[in-house]
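Researcher: Excuse me, tokens okay?
***
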Amino acid sequence: MFGASLETTLSNGYVVSQYFGWSWGKLVAPRRAPLFHTVLLISVIVATALALTSIDPIKITEYSIVFSAVVLPLTYIPVLLIANDPNYVGDKTNSKFSNAIAIIMLVVVVIAALAALPLMIATKAGA
């Protein structure tokens, strides 16, 4: 668990620092990457505060999985559009067969997204 906690903390630091263009890296001294290390510290403090509450981590995981299914089409569609744009991928655009499979998968993903919340409510989130 401790290793996974460290990986998650570093991931938070990397994502936030890269997004804002800050200096980052676990081997970079805190003086050279103060904002990266601040994000690490804040991540640990917030995680510790959450662990000290009575929130059930299994429930948080269940809800996060359901909500990730709900937003999946919002990430799938842009990737599909970019995969067909020669300005981005050059001559590596999707073939007609790849697009047919991708559209079928998009339909499956949209159906899952639409069904996720009603199923969570109907099953009382697995209770």
Notes: Helices lie at 2-20, 34-51, 57-83, 86-89, 96-122. Residues 56-127 form one domain.
